[in-house]
């Protein structure tokens, strides 16, 4: 795999060497107990396994005289998972100074969904790192201007949800996954405290995958080349009145586009196209490149202790996307068989979109033992530039002109939140945001022990991409589209029955007016009829001794939402043994996991715009995928081996994730996470 960001790697290594010079292992002073208020969304019902921690003394003892040593004179490790803590900026802003231990569990490390930044269920193009969209319905949360190209979001670091560290000794981890079909995930993270109140860290991530369909060779079999970087820092003043969180995130994602499987004759059916490398594909020289840069800053000043804090948040985002196809496909007599049209050139395509966004937010926040409030004003400046090449004549490759245009929006928002809680058992909250003079988001919720109720209303403008677009294959101007209004009522009930059984039931009713979707021509359209979704979800974890049985079952009724394509049923079940083996020398999980979405008319994918769009010609099959796995905790190393898609070719030749894109065949996968505390 070629490294496209070599200068970035050198920069990270230089930073690490500099911090090594003046960072020292130090004792941590205990912080006074702070207000601890929790939001319903922060609870994690799936987390039923206790973290496995290395043995260590209950209290710190004297260090040896050797600088940087983390052993006392009895050679017992003093520093480890209990002395390496995580902190999130939203917790500090809302008065919850909850430094959490790093995650050392082996729970779900074998599951592909947990290899990336977003662990929701996704529809993708058959391999890791490919374009994807949420499989289940997600309520919109961002109002106002937004770009609209999100196909690679789950592989990028989210600047709003970076975990900052507080370490008593340098902390680093290596994370590596390698699959038989070329799937590869690699991440290295390094963090340490420069002083007692100042922490700095960096991380570097690689995601790679090989082609599974279409002709390949050893020199040119790459499908995905993803590299991501994050650098982050947290500072707290000596008086604890001022705090600063800042991070920089970068994404460089290259995606080879195939367009999906291409039938070679009229007798071909979807079931006859499972010879993978021996099949034809629509696109042979198409590629998408996306580069992102994000700078994020949040700092706050206590004016009257926790009762009144002033804060400022700043974000600068840049997302540049290039779609290139140097050999547009043809089917006899120059009839195109993938793109519906060519506007500026019939020989090659070079489309670019450059999105830039500045956002400043100023506000006040405060909290007591039973309440929290926040009020703010925010300004967002957004601009997207479009360009496409026009050749001298349609059938030549020589560029004659660059067709370009832009769309700019400057917006102001006001918003706030008010929350009351009692003993972390009863909670009432309301929050809202209003964009002058059109969009708004309102939400109110309550929690009574295990019962949660939530009511949401969102009025949202179409994305900038949905409003206006220029490329060699499509042009649209939809700036007359109206806002979409979404109302959702949601309820959930969770309960822990002793130590053996956890159950969560939830349901939601959603009504969407004037929904914007991409139609069967892969262009935006606004639907006049209301779309109504009815969802129900069941989650449980049953433990019988060392045997565990976990289930996630989601039901979605779309009878009155014909423009929203979701499997009616989605089932994810896992049965495994968990415990110590080899005379308690090894803690492990051994089991099998099944993933089963029922058949549905899955959205097709258009690489020119990175959008999934409606299609009515293909229905996926109801097909379960079984994974057999073994995970283990070996001191500071978590490791797994897995036989993915173990049932491949047993009763069906394969399955499709997206029309034209088959899922992976059987693959032996290995992965580990190795943590260092020195």
Automatic annotation (TrEMBL):
Per UniProt, the ranges with Low complexity bias are: 42-62
Start and end residues of each stretch annotated as Disordered: 26-75
InterPro entries from the UniProt entry:
Porin_10
Q: Can you say what this protein is called? A: Porin
């Amino acid at each position: 795999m070629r490294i496209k960001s070599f200068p970035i790697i050198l920069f990270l290594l230089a930073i690490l060497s500099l911090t090594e010079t003046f960072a020292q292992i130090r004792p941590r002073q205990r912080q006074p107990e702070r207000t601890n208020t929790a939001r319903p969304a922060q609870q994690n019902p799936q987390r039923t396994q206790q973290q496995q921690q290395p043995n260590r003394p209950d209290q710190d003892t004297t260090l040896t005289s050797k600088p940087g040593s983390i052993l006392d004179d009895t050679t017992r490790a003093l520093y480890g998972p209990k002395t390496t803590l995580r902190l999130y900026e939203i917790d500090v802003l809302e008065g919850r100074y909850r430094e959490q231990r790093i995650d050392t569990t082996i729970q779900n490390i074998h599951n592909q969904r947990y290899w990336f930044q977003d662990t929701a269920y996704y529809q993708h193009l058959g391999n890791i790192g490919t374009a994807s969209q949420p499989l289940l319905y997600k309520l919109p949360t961002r109002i106002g201007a937004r770009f609209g190209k999100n196909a690679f979001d789950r592989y990028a670091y989210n600047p709003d949800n970076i975990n900052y560290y507080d370490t008593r000794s340098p902390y680093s981890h290596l994370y590596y996954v390698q699959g038989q079909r070329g799937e590869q995930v690699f991440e290295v993270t390094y963090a340490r405290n420069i002083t007692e109140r100042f922490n700095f860290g960096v991380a570097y991530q690689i995601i790679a995958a090989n082609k599974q369909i279409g002709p390949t060779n050893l020199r040119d079999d790459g499908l995905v080349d993803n590299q991501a970087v994050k650098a982050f820092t947290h500072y707290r003043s000596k008086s604890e009145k001022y705090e600063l969180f800042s991070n920089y995130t970068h994404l460089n994602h290259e995606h080879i586009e195939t367009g999906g499987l291409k039938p070679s004759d009229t007798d071909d059916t979807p079931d006859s196209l499972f010879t993978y490398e021996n099949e034809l594909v629509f696109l042979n020289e198409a590629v998408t490149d996306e580069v992102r840069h994000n700078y994020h800053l949040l700092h706050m000043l206590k004016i009257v202790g926790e009762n009144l804090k002033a804060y400022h948040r700043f974000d600068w985002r840049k997302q540049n996307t290039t779609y290139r196809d140097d050999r547009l496909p043809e089917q006899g007599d120059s009839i195109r068989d993938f793109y519906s049209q060519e506007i500026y050139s019939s020989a090659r395509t070079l489309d670019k979109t450059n999105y830039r966004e500045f956002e400043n937010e100023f506000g006040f926040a405060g909290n007591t033992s039973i309440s929290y409030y926040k009020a703010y004003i925010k300004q967002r400046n957004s601009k997207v530039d479009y360009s496409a090449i026009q050749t001298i004549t349609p059938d030549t490759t020589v560029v004659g002109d660059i067709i370009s245009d832009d769309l700019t929006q400057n917006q102001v928002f006001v918003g706030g939140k008010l929350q009351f809680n009692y003993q972390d058992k009863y909670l009432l909250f309301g929050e809202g945001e209003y964009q002058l003079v059109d969009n708004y988001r309102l939400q109110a919720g309550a929690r009574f022990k295990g019962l949660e109720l939530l009511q949401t209303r969102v009025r949202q403008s179409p994305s900038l991409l949905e409003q206006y677009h220029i490329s060699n294959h499509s042009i649209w101007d939809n700036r007359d589209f109206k806002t979409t209004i979404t109302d959702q009522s949601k309820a959930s009930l969770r309960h822990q029955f002793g130590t053996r059984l956890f159950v969560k039931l939830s349901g939601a009713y959603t009504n969407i007016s004037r929904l914007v979707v991409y139609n069967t021509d892969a262009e935006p359209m606004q639907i006049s009829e209301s779309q109504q979704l009815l969802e129900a979800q069941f989650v449980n974890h049953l433990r019988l001794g060392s045997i565990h049985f976990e289930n996630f079952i989601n039901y979605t009724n779309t009878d009155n939402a014909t423009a929203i394509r979701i499997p009616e049923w989605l089932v994810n079940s896992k049965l495994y043994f968990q415990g110590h083996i080899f005379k308690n020398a090894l803690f492990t999980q051994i089991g099998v996991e099944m993933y089963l979405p029922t058949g549905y008319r899955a959205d097709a994918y258009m690489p020119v715009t990175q959008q999934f769009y409606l299609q009515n010609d293909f229905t996926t099959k109801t097909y379960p995928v079984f994974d057999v796995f073994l995970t283990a905790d070996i001191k500071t190393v978590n490791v797994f081996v897995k036989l993915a898609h173990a049932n491949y070719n047993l009763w069906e030749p394969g399955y499709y994730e997206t029309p034209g894109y088959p899922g992976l065949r059987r693959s032996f996968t290995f992965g580990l996470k190795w943590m260092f505390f020195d």
